[in-house]
Amino acid sequence: MALDHEHFNLTNAIDYIWGHEDILSDDDRRYIETCLPGVEGRPPEGEHEWGVLHLAVTACGFLRKLSGNDVEWLSEQGRLFPDTISRFVHKVATKLHNYEDGGLPDAFIEPLCDFLKDTKSHVATLNYDRLLYGAMIDNGVLDGFNFLVDGMWDAGFHRDNLERLYGRDFGYYLHLHGSPLFVNRNGTPTKKQRHQLSVDSDFIGRHIVLTHVDYKMSVISSSPVLSAYWEYLDYALGEAEEIVVFGCSGDDEHLNQKLKAYGSVPAKSIRVIEWTGAGDHEERRRFWRRKLGNKVRLTQLDNILEFADW
Questions:
Q1: Does residue 130 fall inside a structural domain?
Q2: Do the domain assignments include residue 203?
Q3: Which of 107, 110, 157, 263 fits a disulfide with 189 by CB distance 3.0 to 4.6 angstroms?
C-alpha cells in the first residue's frame, strides 16, 4: 500500500475481476448476488460477505456428495458454483500479486535481506503480492536450505520439506494466506513460475485465504500447504526473541491470538511498525496493546518503506 495504494487496494482488485467478462459470466455474477440479500449489480464487499460465499460453497460441496443413485440435489450451476468462487478468489489474488510498475526500494529491501541472512529470522506474510517474495528469491534469501525455506521445491510441496535435518538451521518463509502461484498438479501442490501468472491464465489455485475470520480455519485446514504454514508459525514464534508486526491492520484476530500468546512470554518483545495515517499514536498504541498485550512497542512512519532499523 505504501508503494501503490490504488493497485494494492483489495476493493479495486475485486471490482476489476467482477467486471472482467472473460472471468465471470452474467450467470456467475447473478448466482453470487443471490447469496447476498440486498446486493444487486456489485461484487461482495468486506470479509463478512465473502464469509457468506464460503458457506454457500460449503453447502454446495455437501449436497454434491449426497447426489447419486439418480438423485441430483444441485442444478448444473450449483455444481459449478464452488469452481466459480475459486476462480473469483484466485483472480483477485492474481490481480494483487501482479505488479509491474517497480519493486520495493533498495534502501528497504537490502537491509532486510542482510538482516535475514545474518539471523535466519522467520518471515510470515499475509498478502498475495510478489514484491517481498520476488525480492527474497532475487537476493538469494530463498535459495535451497541456506537461509529461509518455504517448502516449495520443483517436485512440489510437502510439509516434510520444512523439517530441519542434518544440522541445518534455516528459518521459515510462511505464506500464511497462500499465493495464487500455488496450484495442484496430479494432486500435489506445486508452484508456478512468476512469469506464468496473469488474470488470463487458465489455471486456478486453491491455496488462498479470502473469507471472513470465522471461516479462515476451514480454508486453512482444507489446504495441506496452508495448514503446514500455520503449524510451523507456532515453531517460528516459539523460537523468536522478538516479533515484528510490519504494515498490518491488526484486524486478523486469528493471527492476533497467536501473537498475543507468544508475545506474553517474558523473554520476548513485540514491535509494531505502521503508517502514521492509521491514527493517533497513543490511540493506536492502546489498540495494539488490546490486540497483542501490554508489551507492544509502536513505531509510526509516514512511509513504512523507509524503515531500516532491523
A1: no
A2: no
A3: 157
Measured distance CA(155)–CA(19) in Å, rounded:
36
Distance CA 262, CA 252 (A): 16
How far is residue 18's CA from residue 55's CA, in Å, rounded to a whole number?
Answer: 20
Residue 106 maps to a domain: no
Look up the domain containing 46 and give its range: 10-97
Angle at 8 between CA 6 and CA 13, to 5 degrees: 85
The chain-wide mean pLDDT, for the chain, equals 91
3-state secondary structure at position 3: coil
* pLDDT over threshold 90, residue 51: no
Rounded CA-CA distance 113/111 in Å is 6
Residue 115 amino acid letter:
F
Q: Structural domain tally of the chain?
A: 1
The distance between the two most distant Cα atoms of the chain, rounded to a whole number of Å, is: 66
Check: CB of residue 139 under 8 Å from CB of residue 167: no
Per-residue pLDDT, averaged over 190-202, amounts to: 88
Predicted confidence at residue 150, as pLDDT, reads 94
| Contacts with 196 (C-beta within 8 Å, 6 or more apart), sequence order | none
pTM for the model = 0.91
DSSP letter, residue 151: S
Would you call 249 exposed, middle or buried from its count of C-beta atoms within 10 A (0-12, 13-18, 19+)?
exposed
CA distance 140 to 146: 9
pLDDT in tens, 234-282: 999 999 999 999 999 998 888 999 999 998 888 899 999 999 999 999 9
* Ordered DSSP codes for 132-200: HHHHHHHTTSSSTTSSEE-SEETTEE-GGGGS--TT---EEEEETTB-TTEEEETTEEEE--GGG--TT
What are the grid coordinates assigned to 173, written together? 518463509
Q: What is the mean pLDDT of residues 126-150?
A: 89
- Residue 162 domain-assigned (yes or no): no
Residues belonging to the chain: 310
What mean pLDDT is predicted for residues 81-110?
92
Q: CA–CA separation, 102 vs 81, rounded Å?
A: 36
